[in-house]
C-alpha cells in the first residue's frame, strides 16, 4: 500500500531499509505548571520521514496519554500528532513525549496502540452516550431537549440535571418601551444527534448538534432557529467538563433579535438544610462571594463559632444540638435566599443582587469591575455544580443566575448573552445612503472607504464559539479551589512544544527562526525591540479602547483618526480589521519563535474571532469572509482572503486539532462554491470583459482568491480529510497548469477550473500572449506562507510552478527596467514595498542570491510610504488625557494596522530568510 501510494506521487527513491527510531520531545506548560490539571490536549510537529504514521507509538514519562495523527507528510510519516493527557493530582512542570517506531521504510501493522490502564468508560447506546471519567459521569441524550441529562460526582451523587440551552428572542426592538407588534419567544435546545469520539482513553469528546425550538412557555411560536454544535471534552481522572459551544446565526438582522442566550443546569438540593446550602460566585482577581441560602452569621444571637465557621467555609455545620438554642429555635425567622443574579453588562463593571423569592425586592450586593464568570450552587452533603465561562467580562453582556436555591431543585444559568442587556442588534448601522448602483458604491468607497452593497451587509451565517467549564463536586469545595478553577476557566492550561524543536521540523513554515538564531547585530536587536513594541501596543490598545464584547472580542481596529485620538470605529472601511494584511500571521509567527504566553493568548482570541465572526458558515457566502468595516459582517467584499485557514492553522495543529477549528478549516473548501456565487470583482472589472461565473472557469486572483482555497486544500491533504485526494490532485493540477500562463503569477487573474484545479488564460488574453496584472494586495494575505508550506510539504511539486512563484517574488520589487526587460512592460507603481520585502527575501534564499538579500533589507528599511513603519518612526506612544479624550490613552498616530502587520511579518521573515541586515548589506 505504502509503495503504491508513494509511486502515485512519483517518489521512486523511497529507501527500503528498516530503521526503528525513538524521538523524545519536551512539552511545557505555557504559563507554568497549573495548580489544577483537569486534562489537556496539545499537538507536536514531526520532521518529514521521521516516523511512519501507522507504525509509531507514543508514550510519556508521566500521566496517561492518548495519541492520534492530525497531519501526515506525503510519504505517510507523521507531520503533526495530537495528544491528550488525563487529569492528575500531581502536575509535572513538563512532559516528555516519545515516539517510537519505524522510519519511512516499512509498513506498519497497527494503526494505534491501545493505551494501558484505560480509565474512561463510554457507553454508547441508541438513546444516549454515558461517559465516566472516574471523577464525573455525564449522560448525553441523542434526542429531546437536553444536552446533558445528568451529571454525577465521583461518589455517584447527582449534582446536575437537565442541562439545556436557553434562547430568548423577539421579532423587533421596542423604542422606549413601546412593545406594540413585538413578539417574544422562549426557545430551548432541540437535539438532532450526539456522537462520541472513537478513541476514549485519556479523553472522550461528545459532540451534540441541534437547533433552538420554541418551548411550552413561549408566548409566541416561531420556526426553529440558531443551530448549535456543543462539544464536551471529558478527561480521565478529571471532574471538569470542558464545553465548546458554537452557534451559527441563521436569522434576519431586521426581525430576529437574540435577547438572551444561556446554558442552564438544575442542581438537586433535596435533603440539604437551607443553612448547609452554599452559593459561591467568582468576583475580582480570584475573589469569591461566600453565601449560604440561610445565613447564620451576623445574627443578633450567635449559634457558636464552629457553626459560623463551617457555614462560611462551606462544610457541614455541627449537629443542631450543639448550636446555641436561641438560634436553632428561631430559624423560621431568618430569611432564605432563593435567587442570585450577577450581570456584567460592560467590561468595566458588574452588579450582584439576591432576593428571597420572585415577587419580593432584590437586594444589592456590592459588585465590582470584572467578574471571574463562575458560579457554584450546592450543599455540604449533597454536593454541587460550578459552571464558568471563559472571558466572561471580555464577552459582555453576560450574566449568571442562581435560582430556586431554597427548593428541592435549584438551578444555575450561565448567560452567554445576558437577558438583562438590550437585545442583540445586528441590523446595518446605516440605511444604504442611497447607494443603489455600483457607480455610487464606488464613489462612496472614495470617501468612507466602505464597500457597501445592499444585501451583502448580512450576519446570516456568522458564528460564535464560547468556552464553558462544568465542575462536579461531592461536597461544597473550598473557596480556594473555586478561585483556582476560575483561573483555570479563564486561562485553560496549555502544553506547548519548544520553539527550537518546532522550527527544526519545518512542519509549519521555513520562514521564521528564533530571536537567538538571528541575533548578533544591533539592527536585529532593533527589529526585535520593534516587534515587541508592536505586540505590546496592540495588547494595550485592546484594553484601553475596550475592544471587547460578544462579537468583538478577538478583533483589533484597522485605522486611526489622529484628530479625535480615536481608532476609526465609525468610518466605513477603517474600523474592525478582519485580519487585513495578516496581523494574525504576525502574532502567530511571533509566538512560534518566542513561545511567549501573552502572545499565544492574543492570537488565540483572534483565531476564535476571525474564523467565526468574520467568516460565513451558512448560505451563499459559506467559506468566504468579510472585508474590514464598521460591522464585522457589513462590507460587501466577501472573500477567502479573510477566511483563509492559514490564519487558523498554527493554532489548529498546536492545539492537537481543535475540533471546532477543524470544522471551520474544512468549511473553507466551500469557497470554491463561493467564487461561483459571489463574483469578487463584479464592481471593478472593465465592462468590456464578458464574464459569467462558471465552476469550470472562475475568473480568480491567485492571491486574494485562490491562495485561501489553496491553503484549505493543503490542510485537507495534510489532515487526510474526506476530500484529501481531490485536494491533493487539485494542488498538483494547479502547479502543472499555472506556470503555463505566459507570465505566470504576474498574470494576476486567470480562469480557474474548480472541478480539477487547472488554470487557463484570462478572458482578456485567450491566446496566452501574456498579461500583466500586478496588485499590491495579491500577495499580502498569506500567499507566501501558504506556498512555502506547500513546497515544504511536497518538494516534488512542479518546478516550473516554483520558478513562476520565485519570478513573481523577484520581479515585484525589481526595477522598472528589469520588469520591462522580462515582461515587455513594467508593473507601474508598486506599493507595500516593506510588506513585499519578504518576497524578495524568499527568492534570495531559495536562489541563494545574496545581492537580493541587500535588496530585501533596503525595501524593508526604506519604504517611506503610507503602509510601512520605518526605523525613524517614533517607536513610542504619547499619553493623552484630560478633556482631549474620553479616557486616558496611549497613542501611536504613526501606526496603522496594515503597517504593523506587514512590518511584523516581514521583519520576522527577513531575519529568518536572509539573516540580520548587518550581515548581508553594506548600506541601506
Ligand atoms: C500504512 O500507511 C501506508 C501509507 O500511508 C498505507 O499505504 C498502509 O496501508 C498503512 N498500513 C496500515 C496497516 O494501515
Ligand atoms: C526516509 O527517512 C530517511 C531517514 O530519516 C530520509 O533520509 C529519507 O529522505 C526519507 N525518505 C522520504 C521519502 O521521506
Ligand atoms: C500496563 O498495565 C499492566 C497491568 O495493569 C501493568 O502491569 C503494566 O506495567 C502497564 N504498563 C505500562 C506501560 O504502564
Ligand atoms: C446531526 O444532524 C444534523 C441535522 O440533521 C446533520 O446535519 C448532521 O450531519 C448530523 N451529524 C451527525 C454526526 O450525525
Ligand atoms: C414552563 O414554566 C414552568 C413554570 O415556570 C416551569 O416549571 C416549566 O419547566 C417551564 N417549561 C419549560 C419547557 O421550560
Ligand atoms: C475555616 O477555614 C479556615 C481556613 O482554612 C480554618 O482556619 C478554620 O478552622 C475553618 N473553620 C471551620 C469551622 O472549619
Ligand atoms: C434539629 O435537627 C433535627 C433533624 O436534623 C430536627 O428534627 C430538629 O427539629 C432540629 N431541632 C431544632 C431545635 O431545630
From TrEMBL:
Please give the PANTHER family that the UniProt record associates with this protein.
CONCANAVALIN A-LIKE LECTIN/GLUCANASE (PTHR40081), TAT PATHWAY SIGNAL SEQUENCE DOMAIN PROTEIN (PTHR40081:SF1)
Instruction: Give the source species.
Output: Massarina eburnea CBS 473.64
In this chain the PcRGLX/YetA-like central beta-sandwich domain maps to: 120-486
List the keywords (alphabetical). Answer: Signal
**Coiled-coil region(s):** none
Signal peptide region:
1-20
Where in the numbering of this chain does the PcRGLX/YetA-like C-terminal alpha/alpha toroid domain appear? 492-915
Residues annotated as domain PcRGLX/YetA-like N-terminal RIFT barrel: 24-99
This chain belongs to which protein, by name? Tat pathway signal sequence domain-containing protein
What InterPro entries does the record point to? PcRGLX/YetA-like, PcRGLX/YetA_2nd, PcRGLX/YetA_3rd, PcRGLX_1st
Amino acid at each position: 500500500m505504502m509503495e503504491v501510494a508513494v509511486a502515485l506521487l512519483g517518489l521512486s527513491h523511497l529507501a527500503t531499509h528498516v530503521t526503528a527510531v525513538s524521538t523524545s520531545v519536551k512539552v511545557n506548560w505555557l504559563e507554568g505548571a497549573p495548580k489544577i490539571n483537569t486534562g489537556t490536549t496539545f499537538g507536536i510537529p514531526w520532521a518529514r520521514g521521521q516516523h511512519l504514521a501507522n507504525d509509531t507509538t507514543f508514550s510519556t514519562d508521566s500521566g496517561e496519554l492518548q495519541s492520534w495523527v492530525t497531519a501526515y507528510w506525503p510519504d505517510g510519516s507523521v507531520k503533526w500528532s495530537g495528544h491528550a493527557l488525563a487529569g492528575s493530582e500531581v502536575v509535572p512542570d513538563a512532559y516528555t513525549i516519545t515516539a517510537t517506531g519505524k522510519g519511512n521504510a516499512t509498513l506498519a501493522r497497527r494503526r494505534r496502540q491501545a493505551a494501558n490502564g484505560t480509565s474512561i468508560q463510554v457507553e454508547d447506546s441508541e438513546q444516549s452516550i454515558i461517559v465516566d471519567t472516574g471523577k464525573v459521569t455525564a449522560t448525553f441524550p441523542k434526542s429531546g431537549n437536553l444536552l446533558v441529562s445528568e451529571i454525577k460526582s465521583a461518589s455517584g451523587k447527582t449534582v446536575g440535571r437537565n442541562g439545556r440551552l436557553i434562547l430568548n428572542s423577539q421579532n423587533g426592538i421596542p423604542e422606549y418601551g413601546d412593545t406594540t407588534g413585538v413578539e417574544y419567544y422562549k426557545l430551548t435546545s432541540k437535539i438532532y444527534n450526539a456522537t462520541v469520539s472513537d478513541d476514549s482513553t485519556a479523553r472522550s469528546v461528545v459532540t451534540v448538534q441541534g437547533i433552538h425550538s420554541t418551548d411550552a412557555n413561549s408566548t409566541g411560536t416561531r420556526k426553529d432557529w440558531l443551530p448549535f454544535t456543543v462539544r464536551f471534552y471529558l478527561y480521565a481522572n478529571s471532574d471538569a467538563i470542558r464545553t465548546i459551544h458554537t452557534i451559527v446565526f441563521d436569522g434576519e438582522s431586521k426581525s430576529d433579535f437574540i435577547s438572551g442566550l444561556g446554558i442552564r443546569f438544575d442542581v438537586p438540593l433535596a435533603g440539604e438544610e437551607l443553612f448547609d446550602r452554599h452559593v459561591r460566585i467568582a468576583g475580582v482577581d480570584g475573589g469569591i462571594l461566600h453565601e449560604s441560602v440561610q445565613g447564620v452569621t451576623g445574627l443578633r444571637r450567635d449559634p457558636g463559632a464552629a457553626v459560623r465557621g463551617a457555614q462560611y467555609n462551606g462544610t457541614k455545620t455541627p449537629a443542631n444540638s450543639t448550636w446555641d438554642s436561641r438560634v436553632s429555635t428561631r430559624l423560621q425567622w431568618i430569611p432564605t435566599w432563593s435567587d442570585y443574579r450577577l450581570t456584567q453588562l460592560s467590561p468595566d463593571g458588574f452588579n450582584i443582587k439576591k432576593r428571597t423569592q420572585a415577587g419580593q425586592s432584590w437586594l444589592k450586593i456590592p459588585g465590582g469591575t470584572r467578574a471571574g464568570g463562575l458560579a457554584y450552587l450546592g450543599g455540604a452533603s449533597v454536593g454541587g455544580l460550578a459552571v464558568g465561562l471563559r472571558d466572561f467580562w471580555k464577552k459582555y453582556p453576560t450574566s449568571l443566575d442562581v435560582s430556586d436555591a431554597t427548593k428541592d431543585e435549584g438551578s444555575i444559568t450561565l448567560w452567554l448573552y445576558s437577558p438583562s442587556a438590550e437585545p442583540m442588534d445586528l441590523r446595518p448601522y446605516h440605511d444604504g445612503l442611497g447607494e443603489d448602483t455600483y457607480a455610487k458604491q464606488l464613489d462612496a468607497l472614495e470617501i468612507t472607504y466602505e464597500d457597501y452593497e445592499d444585501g451583502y451587509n448580512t450576519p446570516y451565517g456568522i458564528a460564535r464559539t464560547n468556552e464553558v467549564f462544568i465542575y462536579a463536586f461531592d461536597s461544597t469545595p473550598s473557596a480556594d479551589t473555586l478561585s483556582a478553577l476560575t483561573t483555570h476557566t479563564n486561562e485553560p492550561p496549555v502544553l506547548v512544544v519548544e520553539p527550537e524543536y518546532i522550527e527544526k521540523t519545518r512542519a509549519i513554515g521555513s520562514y521564521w527562526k528564533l530571536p537567538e538564531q538571528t541575533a548578533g547585530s544591533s539592527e536585529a536587536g532593533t527589529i526585535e525591540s520593534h516587534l515587541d513594541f508592536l505586540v505590546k501596543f496592540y495588547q494595550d490598545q485592546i484594553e484601553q479602547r475596550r475592544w471587547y464584547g460578544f462579537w468583538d472580542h478577538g478583533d483589533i481596529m484597522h485605522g486611526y483618526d489622529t484628530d479625535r485620538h480615536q481608532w476609526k470605529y465609525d468610518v466605513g472601511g477603517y474600523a474592525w480589521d478582519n485580519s487585513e494584511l495578516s496581523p494574525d500571521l504576525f502574532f502567530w509567527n511571533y509566538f512560534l519563535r518566542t513561545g511567549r504566553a501573552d502572545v499565544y493568548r492574543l492570537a488565540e482570541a483572534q483565531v476564535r474571532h476571525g474564523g467565526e465572526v468574520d467568516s460565513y458558515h451558512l448560505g451563499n457566502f459559506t467559506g468566504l469572509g468579510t472585508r474590514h468595516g464598521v460591522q464585522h459582517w457589513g462590507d460587501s467584499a466577501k472573500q477567502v482572503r479573510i477566511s483563509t485557514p492559514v490564519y487558523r492553522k498554527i493554532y489548529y495543529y498546536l492545539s492537537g486539532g481543535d475540533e471546532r477549528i477543524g470544522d471551520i478549516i474544512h468549511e473553507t473548501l466551500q469557497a470554491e462554491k463561493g467564487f461561483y456565487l459571489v463574483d469578487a470583482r463584479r464592481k471593478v472589472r472593465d465592462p468590456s470583459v464578458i464574464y459569467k461565473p462558471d465552476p469550470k472557469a472562475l475568473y480568480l486572483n491567485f492571491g486574494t482568491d485562490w491562495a485561501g482555497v489553496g491553503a484549505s486544500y493543503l490542510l485537507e491533504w495534510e489532515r487526510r480529510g474526506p476530500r484529501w485526494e481531490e485536494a491533493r490532485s487539485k494542488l498538483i493540477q494547479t502547479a502543472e497548469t499555472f506556470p503555463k500562463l505566459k507570465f505566470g503569477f504576474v498574470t494576476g487573474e486567470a480562469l480557474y477550473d474548480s472541478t480539477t484545479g487547472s488554470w487557463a488564460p484570462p478572458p482578456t488574453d485567450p491566446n496566452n500572449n501574456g498579461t500583466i496584472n500586478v496588485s499590491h494586495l495579491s500577495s499580502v494575505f498569506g500567499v507566501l506562507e501558504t506556498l512555502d508550506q506547500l513546497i515544504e510539504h511536497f518538494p516534488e511539486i512542479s518546478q516550473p510552478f516554483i520558478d513562476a512563484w520565485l519570478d513573481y517574488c523577484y520581479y515585484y520589487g525589481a526595477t522598472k527596467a528589469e520588469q520591462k526587460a522580462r515582461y515587455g512592460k513594467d508593473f507601474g507603481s508598486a506599493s507595500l514595498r516593506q510588506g513585499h520585502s519578504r518576497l524578495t527575501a524568499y527568492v534570495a534564499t531559495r536562489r541563494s542570491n545574496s545581492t537580493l538579500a541587500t535588496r530585501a533589507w533596503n525595501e524593508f528599511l526604506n519604504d517611506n510610504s503610507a503602509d510601512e513603519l520605518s526605523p525613524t518612526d517614533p517607536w513610542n506612544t504619547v499619553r493623552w488625557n484630560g478633556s482631549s479624550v474620553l479616557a486616558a490613552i496611549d497613542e501611536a498616530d504613526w501606526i496603522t494596522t496594515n503597517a504593523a502587520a506587514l512590518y511584523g511579518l516581514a521583519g520576522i521573515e527577513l531575519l529568518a530568510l536572509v539573516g540580520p541586515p548587518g550581515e548581508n548589506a553594506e548600506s541601506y
